[in-house]
Amino acid sequence: QKEVEQDPGPLSVPEGAIVSLNCTYSNSAFQYFMWYRQYSRKGPELLMYTYSSGNKEDGRFTAQVDKSSKYISLFIRDSQPSDSATYLCAMSAPQAGTALIFGKGTTLSVSS
Amino acid sequence: ETGVTQTPRHLVMGMTNKKSLKCEQHLGHNAMYWYKQSAKKPLELMFVYNFKEQTENNSVPSRFSPECPNSSHLFLHLHTLQPEDSALYLCASSQVYGDPYEQYFGPGTRLTVT
Q1: Which of B10, B24, B43 to mutate to test the interface with A (most CBs of A within 10 A)?
Q2: pLDDT for B97
Q3: Which of A15, A75, A89, B62 could serve as A103's disulfide partner, Cβ 3.0–4.6 Å?
Q4: Nearest by CB: B97 against A41, A49, A98
Q5: What is the reported pLDDT for A95?
Q6: How many Cβ pairs within 8 Å bridge chains A and B?
Q7: What proportion of chain A, given as a percentage, has pLDDT over 70?
Q8: Which 3-state string (H, E, C) describes chain A?
Q9: Contact assignment for A98 to B45 by CB distance below 8 Å
């Protein structure tokens, strides 16, 4: 079983839809959880991060962590064509130092 | 220039060539990283430098040789690569070594090995 599983998609939605992106993981030591957004021909940029369990909201984006289920989610409300990108989940455990373990990324396309 | 820059943006090289990738960060950070992003695979950490000293080498083949002359510059020297080394090579930096939240990525170098 891979450490981090993420459905690569592609996921296509109409403008204004609510998007749900998910990752599952196997390492219960993970404490830091991140979502990166990567536009075509660009490097990843940090979108949101959470520590341990719970929810975090930032504008149209909400990140959720359920450590009991080893499951994290990113919700995008009122999706826009500018949200079209690849979304990467990443996580790390304190004792692993700098190692960020990434998912493969989910490609999202929002049509107007 | 701002953020993290990488040159060249695209590189095509034969298996017997020697080339170098360059990364420069303009953020005043102390830690720099090389990642490999292959199609259909997760990002893989290759090397980490903290204050110019290599702190991590994740079992990367010796045909990849990193160099960090100062905290702002990072190089990846390439020689006798294989076609499976074709990928997007990303450089990142962070203020603090080990900071899981604040890694800033460059745009990457798209490498094709023929």
Answers
A1: B43
A2: 79
A3: A89
A4: A98
A5: 65
A6: 59
A7: 95
A8: CCCEECCCCCEEEECCCCEEEEEEECCCCCCEEEEEEECCCCCCEEEEEEECCEEEEECCEEEEEECCCCEEEEEECCCCHHHCEEEEEEEECHHHCCCCEECCCEEEEEEC
A9: yes
